[in-house]
Amino acid sequence: MTSSPPIARVGIVAKHHLRQAAPHLMDISAWLRQRGLNAVFETATAALCSPCEWPVLEKEQLVREVDMVLVLGGDGTLLGMADRIGEAGLVIPILGVNFGSLGFLTEVILPELYPSLEAAVSGRARIEERLMLQAMTLRGGQAFARHIALNDVVVAKTARARLVDLSVWVGDEFLTRVKGDGVIVATPTGSTAYNLAAGGPIMHPAVEGLVVTPIAPHTLTNRPIVIPSSSTVRVQPEIQDRDEVFVTFDGQAGHELQAGDQVTVCRAPTPLRLIRPSTRSYFEVLREKLKWGDR
After folding, report:
1. Which of 47, 122, 226, 244 is the one with CA 20 to 30 A from 116?
2. Same-domain status, 171 and 230
3. 92, 277 Cβ separation under 8 angstroms
């Protein structure tokens, strides 16, 4: 946990077409103005409260012009902004307010909005540093694409494709060959996302590790494995005719892989700074969101 310096400019991003956020956006604008703070609205968010009196920027530029980001929506909206902050190599904190149904990352609920925002802009809020992933696709031995991800990097077949063969290395050491629907490389933050649905373990955010989880493996001997966060994971699919294999990053972006492509995944140099102003512990969030341990 770390503290944050005082905030002067707040970037505001709402889930696309989230009409119920409109009155809250107006109220947040007034709240910031009363405290002598400035807002910067993301382009689609500004359209929800038109006319917008604040500067309006696209997401990629917005993160470079503010001291923190306030997200109104669900975890997907926060992931999209977290990945942009990571791509820019920035350490600005992000606060998520939940308009969705689950919300592991956007755990602040609407009644907690203004106390949470007050703690964030004054520098009193607790901040957790969350490990992020840096992924690179190699094609013909050259870097083809690079991405940053907070939750996971997934190499998987499409719904209509047959089982895919994947060879997986950790560093220079061969780990395993997976024949199934794919493989997930997840952070502790992402362990409660696709990794959990695929049968992988829950990892506390403070754990310095990554988890490699096969997706629907064809053999019972393929199991998830937790490795040090300093590891580099390399995945190479054996792509045959008519195979369709994609790599995706936090479910936000991705591209199709070709025969001979390799995907490397390692720890990103910059962590995400996640504002957690509520008093709920990680285990309370698990019990509340997952009904973890309920009978």
Report:
1. 47
2. yes
3. no
